[in-house]
Amino acid sequence: MKEIISDFLVMTKQGLYCATGNFHIDPTSSVKTAVISHAHGDHACRNNVTVYCTPPTQAFMKSRYGKASGHEFRLFEYFQSFDVGGVKITFISAGHILGSAQILLEYKNVSYLYTGDYKVQPDPTCTPIDYFRADVLITESTFANPTTHHPSDVEEIKKLNTFSDNVLLGAYGLGKAQRLNYLINKYCPQKAVHLHYSILPIHRVYEQYGVDFLRYSPYERKALKSNLENQIYIVPPLTFNSYFRATNLKKVFASGWERLQRNNDMSLYISDHVDWGEILEYICVVDPIEIWTLHGDGKYLEEHFHAKVPVKILN
Fold first, then answer.
1. Helix 176-187 to helix 200-208 angle, to the nearest 10 degrees?
2. Could you give phi then psi for residue 32, rounded to 5 degrees?
3. Residue 236 belongs to domain spanning
4. How far, in Å, CA of 105 to CA of 128, rounded?
5. Are 253 and 292 in the same domain?
6. DSSP string, 76-122
7. DSSP class of residue 127?
8. How many whole angstroms separate alpha carbon 253 and alpha carbon 266?
9. What's the whole-model pTM score?
């Protein structure tokens, strides 16, 4: 009988903490030892002393935070195991963005798999998700709601082919912008992609790691003013929201969140997270003895697995 430690991971004011190994996973504020799943700002904070992560995650953090990215980085590729405080740790691809990792923790013959953010839809701009069995699955539950179903990203992006107007396309700069760039290049080849200046350095990190097949141009005001059709300008959320008076173009925001589709000229439901059905399928593959949830609302998973698999809500 496996002896699962009920408080092996606990939520603290600084984020998820493993007392056994004395480290935090994806801390929300600076800590002595951080194991980081990926470089999004809600998972990778500044000024940690020692950071364990994948090489692309370090590159993104250094690009965004500079000297404040961390004092010491210890880098590991997928399936290259290492030890922190007596806990064996292995990064496994999460399929979320470039360099994103699930974190497998092994201690006293019990495995704990922290998913971080993950997706199962195909995305050539990052390594596909890897599946791994574990005794305890610690899953994000961002869209863990039975009413949530993400449509095909290919069918969604093809909506842009139904008109020729220029588009102001809102998207998160890390991960989503590169995925959209690829989808537009492949399925809307007549459209030209222009990038906001803040997204360009992220694209260049992608290129350093082999994602060098995206076609785009840095944004130039004249380019969009002189070309009134089939130009798509990808911008981060703050810029998108500031263009409330923009004319002669359509405003579209790529997200799985319904609230971010309101008041736009068209919906574009493209998410980099798993939906309800995908979470259930993933749990089936992992086949855990227990499920722990965080980063969202785990109550629906708790109800779904009632009397079948214990579900504990960490956040």
1. 80
2. -70, -45
3. 153-268
4. 20
5. no
6. --TT--EEETTEEEEEEE-SSSTT-EEEEEEETTEEEEE--S---S-
7. P
8. 8
9. 0.96
Backbone φ, ψ for residue 73 (5° rounding): -110, 135
Which of 268, 288, 305 finishes a domain?
268
The DSSP output letter for 209 is T
Write out the two tokens for 218.
Answer: 């840095």
CA distance 241 to 245: 10
Confirm if 199 and 236 have CB atoms less than 8 A apart.
yes
208 and 258 together in one domain: yes
Q: Which residues of the chain, if any, have pLDDT below 50?
A: none
Inside any domain, residue 40: yes
CATH code of the domain in which 37 resides: 3.60.15.10
How many Å apart are CA 100 and CA 40, to the nearest integer? 9
Give 232's contacts (C-beta < 8 A, 6+ positions apart). 160, 166, 167, 169, 184, 188, 191, 192, 193, 194
Q: Give residue-wise pLDDT tens across range 266-291.
A: 999 999 999 999 999 999 999 999 99
